[in-house]
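Subject: for your reference before the review

Hello V.,

The reviewers asked for a structural picture of the protein, and I figured it would be easier to keep everything in one thread rather than splitting it across files. Below is the amino acid sequence we used in the manuscript, unchanged from the supplementary table.
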Amino acid sequence: MRGKIVLEHGAGGRLMHELVEDISRRLNAPRRGVDKAIIKTNTGRIAFTTDSFVMKPPVVKGCDIGMLSVNGTVNDLVTMGAKPEYLSLSLIIEEGLETDFTMRIIESIGRAADKAGVKIVTGDVKVVEKGGCDKIFINTSGIGRVYKGVKVSTLNAKPGDAVIVTGSIGDHGAAVLAARGEFQLEADVSSDCAPLNSVLEALVRKKTPLHALIDPTRGGLATSLNEVAESSRVAIEIEEESVPVREEVLGFCEVLGIEPFYLGCEGRLVIFVPQSYADEAVRILRALDVSMDARVIGRVVDRSKKGEVRIRTRAGGLRSLPMLQGIPLPRIC
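And here is what came back from the structure prediction:
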């Protein structure tokens, strides 16, 4: 890789995936092991993940960077088929940040950990000079135990799978945009930030066969679907009419010329299951508060050497839905 690092390298789209692949090659590490790994032990499989959070602003309606730092890592463990158990917490704090604000974030972290049923067992604090970071950055790493018999991976989507999303898309990204106030638009949009371990637990309890799980964070639904399509070498088709988008988010996107498919979520899962189990899975999901708006949005239609995602528009046409290019919204998480 040549040139310089730009914001697009952290936006979740094509440039970020290329950067991750380059880092992986230089570390002689598998690409999918950069932020997630499964470790086999004599007592079962252990899931391990790490993530850093640089949300701007650090507080939006329905979410703050503390809550996000817990739920983001918890949900990464969920996508590995694991029950989250332990987190680390490391803070980088800008000199001059108000102590009261810092403690508000810490208290939010504590509440989020309690709600998710995880324990924070280790951590670190660094303070940098004013201007050395933007208020507060947080890193969390997480450990969980993979459920027995569950083997999910972005490599495992198969032709004939149904594609399910657990709720409306784009809520978190729109909430961050609205909170920045850069566009002088009034929008009553709340982040969807939430832990999703109850979703996995419910599906495992009912013995639902799961092929792939992914949380559509940076880069949104479109980028997550492309990641699965490319990894599994399949073609995915979704129905625009079936994808849940709140009216407030849709209106916000239309004014700004942004497609909601590229806005990040922080409390949603995309689930790949055999078509014959799709209706049952949706019924299970709709019994939970966090996924009461779950629905089937498409299916895996065929094998594909390079992987591709297509969307059937409301008008009946079929067009490509590529991975995010550029950076419509930096630092949402």
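For the response letter, the relevant points are probably these. DSSP finds eight helices and 14 strands in the chain. Residues 170 and 260 are 5 Å apart (CA to CA).

Happy to draft the paragraph if you're swamped.

O.
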